[in-house]
Design a protein that fits this description.
The protein has 16 helices and five strands. By secondary structure, the chain is mainly alpha-helical. Strand 2 and strand 3 (about 35-40) form a beta hairpin.
């Protein structure tokens, strides 16, 4: 239903800003205080003590797992890692495709090959979510190797989720620090309230569509540079700046031209994004290890100057600012940054769609109509034109 501009019912929120679309117990954000919580646990606590597999269980089930429960989930994720049915398609994709297009297409294909495609029970929906969580690292790593002319690497089930991803990507088992940082990267991106991609996934599942269609919708939304693609553009910006001395002139010109400074500002946070604080520490540590790489130094100077110029307006660094620097230091190609975001967020998307189905109602917003009324229809032979 559309509403005419003359209607007294008009309540318009551009971009649905401030509109409450669901009730959820999965994650909570206090943007004024810079707080992010998963199921009642602060992101700082989880980054310090937890691991991604435990986060997957926490988001899906609402509580931390016992040791046997975690072992069962971990074994299930390992069981689902292989992508045999998908490999012919992944090998056939153009070598210049964006990896996010590959991820989106591969998850859609999973719906075709899923052995339980016609089973819509709650338990099987959960298993479908776990299949996506488990296979995404294999999809991303396999395509990245294939486009480089290398053979994909089979998963190593002696490794955890983060370790195995880096192993399949690079062909060697990661060092302890790299594995730990990737695990934390997955934890920090696992969920973030009612963001655009989560909302897309929930809109799709609200029609009683399938899990794979819903998660494909989330992936397509995440791809955009105003959402998951922002960290790619952060790195591009830092490389354009080139030097610490060029930070102020570059930013002054960009701000004067009202260009968006990637990695700063957030629709929710007015305070410093807590995920960015955690990643900044690791960006600094990795930067110190990598002699001659100025990315962190340039980034730190950008942060300092931006806070001086616009910090009072609540424009603070967000998670994308330091995540790009961290992933670059791990030797990961820039266009794989957003797929890594998708690998992580798949658990959050899955948790939200399963939660929403518990009391499902089809999303059906309205629009304000501002087009013409009472148009006269003219037969085509009487219409003027060339």
């Amino acid at each position: 239903m559309s509403i005419s501009p003359e209607s007294d019912e008009i309540k318009y929120a551009k971009g649905l800003e401030g509109v409450i679309a669901a009730i959820s117990g999965i994650s909570f954000i206090d943007g004024d205080q810079g707080i992010l919580v998963y199921r009642g646990f602060s992101i700082e606590t989880l980054a310090k003590h937890s691991n991604y597999e435990e986060i997957v269980y926490l988001l899906l089930h609402g509580e931390l797992p016992t040791r046997p429960e975690l072992e069962e989930l971990t074994n299930k994720l390992k069981e689902y890692r292989t992508c045999e049915a998908l490999m012919p398609s992944i090998r056939s994709f153009p070598k210049d495709a964006h990896p996010m297009d590959v991820v989106r297409s591969a998850v859609s294909l999973m719906g075709i090959y899923c052995p339980d495609k016609f089973d819509f029970s709650k338990e099987i929906k959960m298993q479908k979510v776990l299949r996506v969580v488990a296979k995404l690292p294999s999809i991303v790593a396999s395509y990245d190797r294939i486009r480089k002319g290398l053979e994909p690497i089979e998963p190593d089930n002696s490794l955890n989720h983060a370790e195995n991803f880096l192993y399949m990507l690079n062909g060697e088992k990661p060092d302890e620090l790299s594995a730990k940082i990737m695990d934390i990267m997955f934890i920090l991106h696992a969920d973030h309230g009612m963001n655009a991609s989560t909302f897309s996934a929930m809109v799709t599942i609200s029609t009683l569509s399938d899990v794979y269609s819903s998660l494909t919708a989330g992936i397509g939304t995440l791809k955009g540079p105003l959402h998951g693609g922002a960290n790619e553009r952060v790195l591009k910006m830092l490389r354009e700046i080139k030097s610490v001395d060029n930070v102020k002139p570059w930013l002054d010109e960009a701000l004067e031209e009202r260009r968006k400074i990637m990695g700063f500002g957030h629709r929710v946070y007015r305070a410093y994004d807590p995920r960015a604080k955690i990643l900044k520490k690791y960006a600094k540590q990795l930067g110190e290890q990598k002699q001659g790489d100025l990315l962190f130094e340039i980034g730190e100077k950008v942060e300092e100057y931006m806070l001086e110029k616009v910090g009072a307006k609540g424009i603070q660094p967000n998670v994308d600012f330091y995540s790009g620097i961290v992933l670059n230091h791990l030797g990961i190609a820039t266009d794989v940054f957003t797929p890594i975001f998708a690998i992580s967020r798949s658990a959050g998307w899955g948790s939200h769609i399963l939660e929403y189905l518990e009391s499902n109602r089809l999303f059906r917003p309205r629009a304000i109509y501002n087009g013409p009324y009472h148009q006269e229809y003219i037969e085509i032979e009487n219409r003027e034109g060339e």
